[in-house]
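Narrative summary of target 7.
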Amino acid sequence: MASTERVVNQPQPGSLRELLTIAIPMVISAGSQSLMHIIDRIYLTWHHVDEVAAALPAGIIFWAVLSIFHGMGSYVNTFVAQYEGAVRPDRVAATMWQGFYFALISGGLLMLLAPFSGMFFAMVGHDVDIQRHESTYLSILLLGGVPTVLATILGTFFTGRGKTTVVMFVNVVSVAFNAVLDYAFIFGWGPIPEMGIAGGALTDVIANVTTCLALGGLLFWPSIASRYQFWKHHGFDRELTLRMIYYGFPVGLLLLIDVSGWAFFMNAIGWLGKAEQVATNLAFNLNTLAFIPVIGLGIAVSTLVGMRITEGRPDLAARTTWLAVGLSVGYILFCSVIYLFLPQLLLAPYEWKAHGEDFAEVKVVVIQLLWFVAAYSFFDTLAIVFGSAIRGAGDTRFSMIFTLICVLALLIAPTVILFGWYKPTLSMCWAYCSVYIMVMGLGFMFRFLGGKWKSMRVVEPDLVGGAGHASIHTPPVTVLEVEPVSSV
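Modeled conformation, tokenized:
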């Protein structure tokens, strides 16, 4: 029997290779974005401990007001993925135009909130010096609202089509550029004056502008422009916009609820004292760094589930999700070992140039908090991966309602009760926020196991399982000698 050689140009749908092909660039991309914020926090720790104490509360308030727009913008990824699975480049192009109009409107609304930053933090009641830094940081981020939302939407054109390497390269270059500017703007360099926390916020805005220019410019690349013909589909599409709002708004509201709950919690921690606030900021910062690969896997799962749903192959979507769960759980267990036994290693970059006496007190508290991080990380992983899977299919309303119930009952209510009628310790606060994360993880897992997501989609019903998907998403195979060696 003659031998047969098959050259596989693309990974098999539902395979580990397919998942990693999309996930690894998104891991690097998400990592680069998180690294940008971590570098910013390290520089601010070196500059003044009050500034790093202000950065996370102000940053999380920014994400609270941004979240509904960011969530709706990021859900463009699902529309792109499902239209790509249905082989409709014209609808992909129309989707991107509706996203562009949305970015201009939502970014403009964010800018209008900037003058009220100082008023908000005055009501919160943090230390006066920290209030000043918080107001400065938040107002600059709000003024950069348009490029922040637009960068997210432009990225979905590539991630939704599985071209995650493009976003990876753009983000890595943008972050490298930002890291250099961050140091110069915070500490001053040459003609650039020392700006402290204002410089850290300004470089974040510059990084988003750079990302928009790069991703937007790539839409004019000949192979992309000829296939999607953006100039033909630039008009306002009322039906498509309403559908994008119908499915995207719950995702945006979900993020708003979640981030607002965390913003409430983080600002309450500030009432315990400066050391507790700084320690909480750094513990969450370290947690964010560890979860970079899980976030990347979540984006890949959402994209692949969206494609498989319109191809009529939910079984492959389920297989991909379980592969992602296995990878992410194994990784996060490894991270938990680091949290528990090598915390000094994680804190070394922050401690290097920090003010000794101030940081020594904070360091002890951070090491204690990392035990909580190790306890809830497994459940946080379940929430990210299973939540991404069901939202990739279109199950956004359950995500919104479930998150609202959990935030109100398990995060906000305990904060109000403990701070209103008792005098809580930092450990008590971290205990109930850990319970919140655990319940979220189990809830999304059971929703996925229920299987309702398998019959959902966000595109027009007549496009589901349409002809042509096999030629695009089944791996093309070059047969050098055609002679079957088995019935398989």
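The first helix runs from residue 16 to 47.
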